[in-house]
Sequence to fold (364 residues):
Amino acid sequence: MGGPGNPPEGTPEGGPGGGEDEYRSVVFDESFVRAAHLQEFSAQERIADHAPAVRRRPPLRRGLSRQALILVLLIAVAFGTAIYMGVRHPYQTPAGSGPLAEPLRMTVIPLAPQGKVPGASDTDYLYAHSPAAQFRIGAEGIPLPAARRTAHFSDGQVTNALSIAKDYIVRSALYPEVLTGDQVRPVRVLLDPDQLDQFDQSFSHPAADGRHAPTGWLVRFDPAQAELADRKIRVQGTLQAAETDSSTLEVTADHTFVYALRAVASGEKAGAGERTAEASLFTVRRELHFRFDREDLRLNQAQLVVSYVQAGPLSCAEDSTNRLHPLLAGQTAKEGGPAGTDPYATGGATALCGSLAAGSQPKV
Fold:
């Protein structure tokens, strides 16, 4: 007897049940149904007259989902940004990636007087009777020239180079704490970092080798011997800027400084505040060559590559490497010439000494 849902005679051959094994491998899953091009209308939809039994379904949109598109877009933007930042980035170039600054080459020549150093109690009187009578006072004697653009540098960049050079000159030759003290930081902070090791070694281990003389970097006197009798230092000179190549500016400074000095009071006289020593004039002629690349201009720093100094009255027998030991009012140069030079020693510079012309001293 057949089952409740089957014909009494069983499932006829070729009926739905009889071919079950034949279609068992066909699975009408959800994706198959959704992919069908035809869709049967519902009973409610078929109530309308002349409505077709089926309708054609719009084709499914194939491709990436919205989330996938956003992800691909973000990856593309990140990749493009990484390439751009690798080619043109706004950050400072790491130190050492560009050409290194040249070490400073320096020459310091003492000038010996031909007789006694003239002096007077009135510093204005000394200046008025010297070649420095028409010199300006302090930084006013270092005027900036009119800046003109070059082939590869703008007016502003040329002006900036001249201003940095002037700032270095003022700090290294006019600051009282540098002239008669031990301060070097005001000068050091203006130097290109590549020159700092040479600068520091010059002051920790001074040497007359044309590379490590503190008096090649700045002007300073022996504080135990001399002091400023007048802080109104007379100055005269010039500044000139020129382009050496497409990435470098060079500034040449040539200035003469005239200082009024007096011997340091000692003992009871110093305690009583008495000043019996006369003042005298001391002259320093400095020719400095500065070099600037665009990084130096951006950071307000300079490369000092040449320093040529003549100073007097000095004794040629005194060592002017670390500090200047000026001859003061009434003093004369010690007998003998400059320190001996060994022509077989290749590590040191040849000692030089000059004579201070009589016309360069005050007529008192």
Notes: The chain has twelve helices and nine strands. Residues 232 and 261 are 11 Å apart (CA to CA). The first strand starts at residue 38 and ends at 40. Residues 89-97 have pLDDT under 50 and may be disordered.
